[in-house]
Amino acid sequence: MLEIVRQQMVCIVAPGWAGGARLSEPCRKALNHLLHDVAVVHFASIGLLPAMAGDANKRPSLLLELAVEEGFRPYDLLYRLVYHPDGAMWALFGTMIVPNVAEPTAQQKQQLLEKLVSWHSIADGGFVGARDRSVRQIEMEKDLLDQTRVEARYLKSKYGNDRTAFALALSRWAYTNPDFGWAATPAPRSYWRGKGAGIGAKLAYPVAAIVLWFLLLGIVWALPRAYNWFFGAPGGSGRPSNTPSPGQPNACSR
Q1: Does residue 219 register a pLDDT over 90?
Q2: Which of 9, 28, 132, 166 allows an S-S link to 123, with CB 3.0 to 4.6 Å?
Q3: Is pLDDT above 80 for 240?
Q4: CA distance 9 to 44
């Protein structure tokens, strides 16, 4: 089932791209290593968009589209990418900040980060299947699939057309493999989309937050009055100073 969700796709549109339509091989390898090492980006796409209206140079915009794991603010994600030691983001966008600088200073990296933040926007993305898989989990599942394929080819040559013996041997191999113990438990799901807690339990958190907010407002409202009660001038009754006390002559009664 295809789901359209928000807050999982970060798009960076950088105007004034002066490079060509193809990335250099070192830059491409550096980006591959960066995204693999950061391990929170599920999908990345780079492309060129037409020049923005009013651009005197008529240069295209460079688009970087990232589908990322949930729970990351764009600033935190971009910080990880910019300050990665390989410097792949500087190799891609650096010439748009300070031309002809191969090794940026900390100040120049901060300038790049601020630029990327100003160029970014949140987009909707379509996801098939569970959205809660982490990059680490996807890599483990791929490793399980690759090893299973190798073992299946070996067992197929051993058992031939005996499908029952083949299936039992393959399942026995997978069950006794200590590297696949993690696959015996269900993958973790988001608390809000998981089925372990009912609707009432999920609503308890926002309701509790609202109640605590009103309690905090009540405390803030009561603190000055409690202070006056304990430490205020003795005999104060809260009567306005221009209100005469009982028995005091009133100017209007004269």
Answers
A1: no
A2: 9
A3: no
A4: 10
